[in-house]
Amino acid sequence: MGQKMVSNIKRVAVLLMVALFSYSTVSAETRPDVVERIKPVGTVVVGGQASADASAAASGAPAAPAKPVSEGEALYQAKGCGACHGPDGIKTAMPIYPKLVGLPVQYAVNQMKDIKSGARSNGQSVAMKGIVAGVTEEEMTKMAEWLAGKSSAAAPAPAPKKAKAAPAPAPKAAAAPAAKAESAPAPAPKAAAPAPAAAPAAGGDGAALYASKGCGACHGPDGNKTIMPIYPKVAGLPAQYSINQMKDIKSGARSNGQSAAMKGVVMAIDDKDLKAIAEWLATQ
Protein backbone atom coordinates (compact mmCIF):
# COMPACT_ATOMS: atom_id res chain seq x y z
CA MET A 1 0.00 0.00 0.00
CA GLY A 2 1.44 3.31 -1.01
CA GLN A 3 2.11 6.30 1.20
CA LYS A 4 -0.47 8.39 -0.63
CA MET A 5 -3.23 5.86 -0.04
CA VAL A 6 -2.49 5.71 3.71
CA SER A 7 -2.69 9.48 3.88
CA ASN A 8 -6.08 9.52 2.14
CA ILE A 9 -7.45 6.86 4.50
CA LYS A 10 -6.42 8.95 7.55
CA ARG A 11 -8.03 12.04 6.07
CA VAL A 12 -11.33 10.22 5.50
CA ALA A 13 -11.27 8.82 9.05
CA VAL A 14 -10.80 12.30 10.53
CA LEU A 15 -13.69 13.68 8.45
CA LEU A 16 -15.96 10.85 9.62
CA MET A 17 -15.11 11.51 13.29
CA VAL A 18 -15.85 15.25 12.92
CA ALA A 19 -19.19 14.54 11.27
CA LEU A 20 -20.16 12.04 13.97
CA PHE A 21 -19.30 14.49 16.78
CA SER A 22 -21.30 17.31 15.19
CA TYR A 23 -24.35 15.07 14.80
CA SER A 24 -24.18 13.96 18.45
CA THR A 25 -24.06 17.56 19.69
CA VAL A 26 -27.07 18.66 17.60
CA SER A 27 -29.00 15.58 18.66
CA ALA A 28 -28.37 16.27 22.35
CA GLU A 29 -29.57 19.86 22.00
CA THR A 30 -32.77 19.02 20.15
CA ARG A 31 -33.94 15.80 21.78
CA PRO A 32 -35.97 16.41 24.97
CA ASP A 33 -34.99 13.10 26.57
CA VAL A 34 -31.31 13.93 26.23
CA VAL A 35 -31.81 17.49 27.57
CA GLU A 36 -33.66 16.12 30.59
CA ARG A 37 -30.85 13.67 31.41
CA ILE A 38 -28.11 16.28 31.29
CA LYS A 39 -30.08 18.99 33.17
CA PRO A 40 -28.11 20.08 36.32
CA VAL A 41 -29.55 18.90 39.60
CA GLY A 42 -29.96 21.60 42.32
CA THR A 43 -28.15 24.93 42.51
CA VAL A 44 -24.44 25.34 42.99
CA VAL A 45 -23.58 27.04 46.29
CA VAL A 46 -20.49 29.22 46.17
CA GLY A 47 -18.69 30.32 49.31
CA GLY A 48 -21.39 28.92 51.63
CA GLN A 49 -24.07 31.36 50.37
CA ALA A 50 -27.27 29.79 49.15
CA SER A 51 -29.06 31.03 46.09
CA ALA A 52 -31.29 34.05 46.78
CA ASP A 53 -34.08 32.57 44.70
CA ALA A 54 -34.00 29.28 46.59
CA SER A 55 -33.99 31.10 49.95
CA ALA A 56 -36.94 33.30 48.99
CA ALA A 57 -38.89 30.33 47.73
CA ALA A 58 -38.27 28.40 50.96
CA SER A 59 -39.22 31.21 53.33
CA GLY A 60 -42.03 32.80 51.32
CA ALA A 61 -42.79 36.50 50.95
CA PRO A 62 -43.11 38.41 54.26
CA ALA A 63 -46.68 39.20 55.33
CA ALA A 64 -47.70 42.85 54.96
CA PRO A 65 -48.35 44.64 58.29
CA ALA A 66 -52.00 45.01 59.26
CA LYS A 67 -53.41 48.42 58.37
CA PRO A 68 -55.45 50.46 60.88
CA VAL A 69 -59.18 50.15 60.55
CA SER A 70 -59.51 53.83 59.62
CA GLU A 71 -57.37 56.91 59.09
CA GLY A 72 -58.92 58.46 62.19
CA GLU A 73 -57.76 55.54 64.32
CA ALA A 74 -54.25 55.75 62.84
CA LEU A 75 -54.09 59.48 63.65
CA TYR A 76 -55.38 58.90 67.19
CA GLN A 77 -52.57 56.41 67.78
CA ALA A 78 -49.88 58.45 66.05
CA LYS A 79 -50.66 61.67 67.98
CA GLY A 80 -50.48 59.88 71.34
CA CYS A 81 -54.09 60.62 72.35
CA GLY A 82 -54.36 57.24 74.07
CA ALA A 83 -51.78 58.21 76.70
CA CYS A 84 -54.49 60.15 78.58
CA HIS A 85 -57.80 59.11 77.02
CA GLY A 86 -57.03 55.39 76.69
CA PRO A 87 -56.03 53.38 73.59
CA ASP A 88 -59.64 53.17 72.45
CA GLY A 89 -60.98 56.43 73.96
CA ILE A 90 -63.03 54.56 76.57
CA LYS A 91 -60.91 53.95 79.68
CA THR A 92 -58.95 57.05 80.64
CA ALA A 93 -55.58 57.04 82.41
CA MET A 94 -57.00 59.20 85.23
CA PRO A 95 -60.54 60.30 86.21
CA ILE A 96 -59.66 63.93 85.44
CA TYR A 97 -59.58 63.13 81.70
CA PRO A 98 -62.77 62.75 79.63
CA LYS A 99 -63.88 59.64 77.83
CA LEU A 100 -64.01 60.53 74.13
CA VAL A 101 -65.96 57.69 72.55
CA GLY A 102 -69.45 58.71 71.44
CA LEU A 103 -68.90 62.48 71.57
CA PRO A 104 -70.65 64.36 68.75
CA VAL A 105 -68.16 65.09 65.97
CA GLN A 106 -68.78 68.84 65.93
CA TYR A 107 -68.40 69.17 69.69
CA ALA A 108 -65.11 67.22 69.72
CA VAL A 109 -63.68 69.25 66.82
CA ASN A 110 -64.74 72.54 68.48
CA GLN A 111 -63.00 71.59 71.73
CA MET A 112 -59.75 70.66 69.97
CA LYS A 113 -59.81 73.93 68.03
CA ASP A 114 -60.55 75.96 71.19
CA ILE A 115 -57.68 74.30 73.07
CA LYS A 116 -55.38 74.95 70.11
CA SER A 117 -56.38 78.64 69.93
CA GLY A 118 -56.40 79.14 73.70
CA ALA A 119 -60.15 79.78 73.94
CA ARG A 120 -60.32 76.83 76.32
CA SER A 121 -57.54 76.73 78.89
CA ASN A 122 -59.05 75.17 82.00
CA GLY A 123 -58.07 71.90 83.63
CA GLN A 124 -55.68 69.72 81.61
CA SER A 125 -56.05 71.83 78.45
CA VAL A 126 -52.50 73.11 78.86
CA ALA A 127 -51.10 69.58 78.52
CA MET A 128 -53.20 68.95 75.41
CA LYS A 129 -52.36 72.27 73.75
CA GLY A 130 -48.90 71.07 72.75
CA ILE A 131 -50.42 68.01 71.04
CA VAL A 132 -53.18 69.73 69.06
CA ALA A 133 -50.74 72.44 67.93
CA GLY A 134 -49.50 70.00 65.29
CA VAL A 135 -52.93 68.65 64.27
CA THR A 136 -54.81 70.11 61.30
CA GLU A 137 -58.56 70.66 61.34
CA GLU A 138 -58.96 67.90 58.75
CA GLU A 139 -57.10 65.48 61.02
CA MET A 140 -59.21 66.59 64.00
CA THR A 141 -62.36 65.78 62.04
CA LYS A 142 -61.12 62.32 61.06
CA MET A 143 -60.26 61.45 64.65
CA ALA A 144 -63.59 62.84 65.91
CA GLU A 145 -65.52 60.82 63.31
CA TRP A 146 -63.73 57.64 64.32
CA LEU A 147 -64.41 58.25 68.01
CA ALA A 148 -68.06 59.14 67.40
CA GLY A 149 -68.61 55.90 65.49
CA LYS A 150 -67.15 53.65 68.19
CA SER A 151 -69.28 51.88 70.75
CA SER A 152 -68.48 52.64 74.39
CA ALA A 153 -68.88 48.96 75.29
CA ALA A 154 -69.21 45.70 73.43
CA ALA A 155 -72.80 44.60 73.14
CA PRO A 156 -73.44 41.38 75.11
CA ALA A 157 -74.23 38.29 73.09
CA PRO A 158 -77.95 37.45 73.13
CA ALA A 159 -78.84 34.58 75.45
CA PRO A 160 -80.01 31.42 73.67
CA LYS A 161 -83.74 31.07 73.62
CA LYS A 162 -85.13 28.25 75.69
CA ALA A 163 -87.54 25.88 74.05
CA LYS A 164 -91.05 26.52 75.24
CA ALA A 165 -92.51 23.68 77.26
CA ALA A 166 -95.78 22.29 76.10
CA PRO A 167 -98.60 23.69 78.24
CA ALA A 168 -100.02 21.28 80.80
CA PRO A 169 -103.56 20.11 80.03
CA ALA A 170 -106.15 22.13 81.87
CA PRO A 171 -107.84 20.21 84.72
CA LYS A 172 -111.36 19.22 84.07
CA ALA A 173 -113.91 21.37 85.80
CA ALA A 174 -115.83 19.63 88.57
CA ALA A 175 -119.54 19.35 88.11
CA ALA A 176 -121.29 22.30 89.73
CA PRO A 177 -123.66 21.34 92.56
CA ALA A 178 -127.30 21.94 91.99
CA ALA A 179 -128.31 25.47 92.94
CA LYS A 180 -130.49 25.89 95.97
CA ALA A 181 -133.79 27.54 95.57
CA GLU A 182 -132.77 30.57 97.64
CA SER A 183 -128.97 31.30 97.67
CA ALA A 184 -127.45 33.90 99.99
CA PRO A 185 -126.23 37.11 98.24
CA ALA A 186 -122.44 37.39 97.73
CA PRO A 187 -120.67 39.83 100.10
CA ALA A 188 -119.76 43.21 98.59
CA PRO A 189 -115.98 43.62 97.80
CA LYS A 190 -113.97 45.82 100.13
CA ALA A 191 -112.79 49.17 98.83
CA ALA A 192 -109.02 49.20 97.94
CA ALA A 193 -106.79 51.24 100.22
CA PRO A 194 -105.50 54.44 98.55
CA ALA A 195 -101.89 54.25 97.23
CA PRO A 196 -99.37 56.14 99.37
CA ALA A 197 -98.21 59.45 97.94
CA ALA A 198 -94.80 59.34 96.22
CA ALA A 199 -92.03 60.61 98.45
CA PRO A 200 -90.19 63.67 97.16
CA ALA A 201 -86.75 62.99 95.63
CA ALA A 202 -83.88 63.23 98.06
CA GLY A 203 -81.37 66.04 97.59
CA GLY A 204 -78.61 63.56 96.69
CA ASP A 205 -80.60 61.81 93.95
CA GLY A 206 -78.53 62.49 90.82
CA ALA A 207 -81.20 61.40 88.34
CA ALA A 208 -83.86 63.61 89.95
CA LEU A 209 -81.47 66.56 90.15
CA TYR A 210 -80.44 66.14 86.52
CA ALA A 211 -84.10 66.26 85.50
CA SER A 212 -85.13 69.10 87.84
CA LYS A 213 -82.22 71.36 86.86
CA GLY A 214 -83.11 71.09 83.17
CA CYS A 215 -79.84 69.41 82.11
CA GLY A 216 -81.73 67.22 79.64
CA ALA A 217 -82.80 70.25 77.62
CA CYS A 218 -79.36 70.26 75.94
CA HIS A 219 -77.72 66.95 76.86
CA GLY A 220 -80.74 64.69 76.42
CA PRO A 221 -83.00 63.04 79.05
CA ASP A 222 -80.35 60.49 80.04
CA GLY A 223 -77.21 62.33 78.92
CA ASN A 224 -76.66 60.07 75.92
CA LYS A 225 -78.29 61.89 73.02
CA THR A 226 -77.83 65.63 72.74
CA ILE A 227 -80.33 67.89 71.01
CA MET A 228 -77.57 69.47 68.89
CA PRO A 229 -74.07 68.26 67.88
CA ILE A 230 -72.45 71.27 69.58
CA TYR A 231 -73.34 69.87 73.03
CA PRO A 232 -71.37 67.03 74.65
CA LYS A 233 -72.66 63.61 75.54
CA VAL A 234 -72.29 63.60 79.33
CA ALA A 235 -73.34 60.03 80.13
CA GLY A 236 -70.44 57.76 81.04
CA LEU A 237 -67.93 60.55 81.71
CA PRO A 238 -65.68 60.06 84.77
CA ALA A 239 -67.41 61.71 87.73
CA GLN A 240 -64.38 63.78 88.72
CA TYR A 241 -64.03 65.20 85.20
CA SER A 242 -67.71 66.24 85.14
CA ILE A 243 -67.47 67.83 88.59
CA ASN A 244 -64.36 69.80 87.55
CA GLN A 245 -66.01 71.08 84.36
CA MET A 246 -69.19 72.21 86.12
CA LYS A 247 -67.15 73.98 88.79
CA ASP A 248 -64.95 75.66 86.16
CA ILE A 249 -68.00 76.86 84.20
CA LYS A 250 -69.51 78.12 87.46
CA SER A 251 -66.32 80.04 88.38
CA GLY A 252 -65.64 81.27 84.85
CA ALA A 253 -62.40 79.27 84.43
CA ARG A 254 -64.06 77.66 81.41
CA SER A 255 -65.95 79.99 79.14
CA ASN A 256 -65.62 78.57 75.61
CA GLY A 257 -68.40 77.28 73.40
CA GLN A 258 -71.80 76.96 75.05
CA SER A 259 -70.44 77.46 78.57
CA ALA A 260 -72.20 80.82 78.89
CA ALA A 261 -75.59 79.13 78.45
CA MET A 262 -74.73 76.54 81.12
CA LYS A 263 -73.33 79.03 83.59
CA GLY A 264 -76.78 80.26 84.55
CA VAL A 265 -77.82 76.68 85.34
CA VAL A 266 -74.84 75.62 87.46
CA MET A 267 -74.81 78.86 89.44
CA ALA A 268 -77.89 77.59 91.29
CA ILE A 269 -76.43 74.13 92.06
CA ASP A 270 -74.26 73.57 95.14
CA ASP A 271 -71.19 71.32 95.12
CA LYS A 272 -73.00 68.43 96.83
CA ASP A 273 -75.65 68.33 94.11
CA LEU A 274 -73.04 68.73 91.35
CA LYS A 275 -71.33 65.65 92.76
CA ALA A 276 -74.61 63.69 92.86
CA ILE A 277 -75.38 64.55 89.23
CA ALA A 278 -71.86 63.66 88.08
CA GLU A 279 -71.83 60.32 89.90
CA TRP A 280 -75.21 59.37 88.42
CA LEU A 281 -74.07 60.32 84.89
CA ALA A 282 -70.92 58.22 85.28
CA THR A 283 -73.11 55.12 85.64
CA GLN A 284 -75.17 55.78 82.52
The major sheet is characterized as: none
The unreliable regions are 40-58, 154-163, 173-184, 194-203
Might you state the CATH topology name of the domain at 71-149? Cytochrome Bc1 Complex, Chain D, domain 2
**Whole-number average pLDDT?**
76
Number of strands: 0
CA radius of gyration is 44 Å
| Top CATH class of the domain at 71-149 | Mainly Alpha
- Strand fraction equals under 5%
> Shape, please?
rod-shaped
CATH architecture descriptor name of the domain at 71-149: Orthogonal Bundle
Number of helices: 13
Question: Between the first and last Cα atoms, what is the distance in angstroms?
Answer: 125 Å
Structural class comes to: mainly alpha
Helix percentage: 40-55%
Q: What's the layout of helices and strands?
A:
Blueprint: H1 3-30, H2 32-38, H3 52-59, H4 71-78, H5 82-85, H6 105-117, H7 125-132, H8 137-149, H9 206-212, H10 216-219, H11 239-251, H12 259-266, H13 271-282
Helix pairs in contact: 1-2, 4-8, 6-7, 6-8, 9-13, 11-12, 11-13
Structure description:
There is one protein chain. This protein has 284 residues and is mainly α. Among the domains are: 71-149, Cytochrome Bc1 Complex, Chain D, domain 2 (Orthogonal Bundle), CATH 1.10.760; 206-282, Cytochrome Bc1 Complex, Chain D, domain 2. It has helices at 3-30, 32-38, 52-59, 71-78, 82-85, 105-117, 125-132, 137-149, 206-212, 216-219, 239-251, 259-266, 271-282. Helix 4 (71-78) crosses helix 8 (137-149) and helix 6 runs antiparallel to helix 8 (137-149). Mean pLDDT is 76; it is low at 40-58, 154-163, 173-184 and 194-203.
